[in-house]
Design goal:
CATH architecture of the largest domain: Alpha-Beta Barrel
Structural class: alpha/beta
Number of helices: 15
Oligomer: single chain
Largest sheet: 8 strands, mixed
Helix content: 25-40%
Distance between the termini: 29 Å
CATH class of the largest domain: Alpha Beta
CATH superfamily of the largest domain: Metal-dependent hydrolases
CATH topology of the largest domain: TIM Barrel
Bound molecules: zinc ion
Shape: globular
Length: 432
């Protein structure tokens, strides 16, 4: 493999949360030098032209839909979307058909990814057989074939005993349980957040309590077992308060929030209807503000996309029939900037750890920072670039985003995995 040198830009030192002027050399799949000036006559030069070179983003919560739902997304198309969004590593949820509940099924995803994916794919194993919450999967066997964590994402684990056993098993293997906190009975059959808007629209409503009551249980179970509870897609203020208190008690808990929950509220639902339907739902402005506060004070560790692609016929239907979820990989960086950077709450350098070194730390991955000897998984960011979310240009098969045809600011313009450029776009094109 050849050598590549990045010049004339800013390097994101995510651990120190700063941008520094410098050059970076890649050879043999790794970063081999970082310095103010590097001389290497045999390297191909990439002129950053004042753009930002950052570690490739790491998403701990992606739905790739394969096997079983290839009409929504495949591993190949999801990986294309990831690279276009600046992601070089994605952890994929097991709620496929069949679910990733056996070692062979986990191994199949690894093999399919090796054959078709342009980014690194890390499968997450199911907590329970067929994700029905009744019988624990063989965690050790799934881990041996490549599972990096366990989750029944898409639904909550209703049995307290099952969650206790899952946290014990995960603790023994030193991997996290990634918990979708939702009490199905409290959640009911609503489509959007329970409140004034759900009443206006005649929707049953999904109360925040369906999330934070199960979360409260799981925090106690994490304390009892010593297991690592990673809370998926936190959406409510009370959940933020519970996680903050649990961290203060020393419970091993980490948490993620999606860009859309940081940026949008239920107020967009009347205009967008099915295109604003997501689980957990977009909630109130008070909830959104609590999520922002949780990001700023470290209660919430990372940003994850919950990329949930669907076909058009599954979203362009009445609200009650629409599928839950947004296609998120390609807009995540820009939406995170809209929520945190453009309002002046964080600088770009302060935002980047939530997309890079912190998700890496949760799974113990070597990538996620710019350091000599680490994998050359990199993204070149044009943080000020204005672009339109044109469905024809989204690489994901899922065009289901509430940001369709809107202008966003900030985009990945080049993505590199293990030293190979896997994605590149014209920096000046506003609809690329
Ligand atoms: Zn979920």
């Amino acid at each position: 493999m050849g050598k590549t040198i990045f010049r004339n830009g800013w390097l994101a030192d995510v651990e120190q949360r700063r941008l520094v002027r410098g050059e970076l050399l890649v050879e043999d799949k790794r970063i081999t030098a970082i310095a103010p000036r590097i001389t290497c006559e045999t390297a191909e030069e990439i002129d950053l032209a004042d753009a930002v070179l950052a570690p490739g983003f790491i998403d701990l919560h992606t739905h790739l839909r394969e096997p079983g739902y290839e009409h929504k997304e495949t591993i190949a198309s999801g990986a294309q979307a990831a690279a276009a969004g600046g992601f070089t590593t994605i952890a994929c949820m097991p709620n496929t058909r069949p679910a990733l509940d056996t070692a062979a099924r986990v191994a199949w995803v690894k093999e399919q990814a090796a054959a078709t994916s342009i980014v690194k794919v890390l499968p997450i194993g199911a907590i329970s057989v067929e994700q029905t919450g009744r019988e624990l999967t063989d965690f050790a066997a799934l881990q041996a074939s490549g599972a990096v964590a366990f989750s029944d994402d898409g639904r909550g684990v209703m049995s307290s005993k099952m969650m206790l056993l899952a946290l014990q098993a995960a603790q023994a293997l030193a991997v996290p349980i990634m918990a979708h906190e939702e009490d199905a009975e409290l959640a009911g059959r609503g489509s959007i957040n329970a409140g004034r808007i759900s009443q206006q629209l005649g929707d049953e409503g999904i109360p925040a309590a369906s999330e934070f009551i199960m979360l409260a249980r799981d925090l106690y179970l994490a304390e009892l077992t010593g297991g690592h509870l990673h809370v998926c897609h936190v959406s409510s203020a009370e959940s933020v308060h519970l996680i903050r208190a649990a961290k203060a008690r020393g419970i091993q808990v980490t948490a993620e929030v999606t860009p859309h929950h940081l940026h949008l509220t239920e107020a967009v639902v009347p205009a967008l209807l099915g295109q604003a339907k997501v689980n957990p739902p977009l909630r109130s402005e008070a909830d959104r503000e609590a999520l922002i506060t949780g990001m700023l004070d470290g209660t919430i560790d990372i940003i994850a996309t919950d990329h949930a692609p669907h076909a058009a016929h599954e979203k362009d239907v009445p609200l009650s029939q629409a599928a839950f979820g947004f296609s998120g990989l390609e807009v995540a960086f820009a939406v995170a900037q809209a929520a945190l950077v453009q309002p002046g709450l964080l600088t770009l350098a302060e935002l980047l750890p939530a997309l890079t070194c912190r998700p890496a730390a949760i799974l113990g991955l070597p990538q996620g920072r710019l350091a000599v000897g680490t994998p050359a998984d990199l993204v070149v960011l044009a943080p000020q670039k204005r672009w339109y979310v044109n469905p024809d240009n989204l690489r994901s098969q899922g065009k289901n985003t509430p940001y369709l045809n809107q202008e966003l600011i900030g985009q990945a313009v080049l993505t590199m995995v293990d030293g190979s450029i896997v994605f590149r776009r014209d920096r000046d094109a506003s609809d690329a």
